[in-house]
Amino acid sequence: MATPTPQTAAPGGLRERKKQRTRDALIRAALELFTEQGYEATTIDEIAEAVDVSQRTYFRYFANKEEVVFAVQEMVEARFLEELSARPASEAPLTALRSAVMVAWDDIGGAIESVIPVELHMRSYRMIESTPALVAVHLRRSSELEEQIARLIARREDLDVDTDPRPRVLVAAFSGVMRVAGKVWGEGQDCSVASIRELTKSYLDHIAPAIDDDWHTAGEADTR
Q1: Where is the HTH tetR-type domain (predicted)?
Q2: Which residues neighbour 198 within 8 Å (Cβ) at sequence distance 6 or greater?
Q3: Could you tell me the pTM of the whole model?
């Protein structure tokens, strides 16, 4: 009988893990530098040097400084969109949005902490809010995300987002609450994921009675 040989990791798997570690290290180094000495004052060479890689290696992962600033936020948004897409069709639109946020926060904390400390995530949020060039980018990204969410909600409700304003109105209200909750969290002392989750839950609870409607029933009533 042949003696079994130990299983070894596939080279491709090792390469991917090494690439992920390098990417994560670049994100952490960049955010540490940005929050310590300012976004504008930090160069890509400094970020690369902090991770002991070349500038060329940096550009394999990020096209510019802007991309690395929003890398973790992009991960959080992707997790939210994934969860929203998976919500049951029977849920009312606001309920689906609220549930997606809560479920996403349940596991996104660990994902953030696998890349950067949550405390650094909070400091980065403050840095973005105080850097005019990044505020403009943040607003543009938020607008694009809102449109993506509105179209997703419209598909769930079998509505045409270009003729029915309700998906965009709902998402605008939802996004406004999320921005306020994020701002309050960013200005606070508790930088835990549990803190922002509870703060978000509390703020969303305040808008539910006002706009959590059965759209189809309301629409039928309007036509009678």
Answers
A1: 20-80
A2: none
A3: 0.78
